[in-house]
Amino acid sequence: MAEMNWEILQKPSEAAETRLVTAIIDGTFPVNSQFPAERELASLLGVTRPTLREALQRLARDGWIEIQQGKPTRVRNFWQEGNLGVLSAIAQHPNKLPPDFVNNLLSVRLLLAPAYTRLAIERQPHVIRDLLGESLHIPDTPQAFGAADFNLHRQLTICSGNPIFTLILNGFTDLYQEMAIIYFASPMARENSRDYYKQLLESAIKEDMDEAEMITRQVMSESIRIWKAALQFGRKT
97 exposed, middle or buried (CB, 10 Å; 0-12, 13-18, 19+)? Predict the structure, then answer.
């Protein structure tokens, strides 16, 4: 049997969309600037005009740009006019993130994690018990803790019964795991999470969703402080 090449290649319109998003994020096309004329832009990207139009329609759908017939295409203020598609795309460019992006993301997690943890303990405590039992034996490395922590939160969102929580978290898979390696490089962060997993396991065994919610809120708040300390340490080294 001939060897199959399973590499997934981007469609030309998807590649054009990716390049334009990158150009917006890195400031090549800043907010409120205008794209070149369609013919010129298609030439710059090396695609046909129909392919470019397909890419532009998707960018407009997500809130990156504004298309008005007879007028130049304008780059929107995507922080104010974009949607979750914009947020997910921004997360794929960790080197271009605004200074407060991760802190803001952690603040959102502080609001969401207690809610989906409470629901998960209420609906499927046995699943969470089994998962947390495994988490007590994580190898003491940043990579292992990052993967395990993401898996725990993803399973908590799934068990919550609200798929919106899962979709939001999935949009940050790569960024979450990249930032987690930095975060869990701190022994304090790993110890903090070990304590959290143990306490949450006890809450799951008791099926005490109030306690699980309270513990999660406390730990998510502490994680913001640890992240800021990790960044300060990184700047000094």
Answer: middle
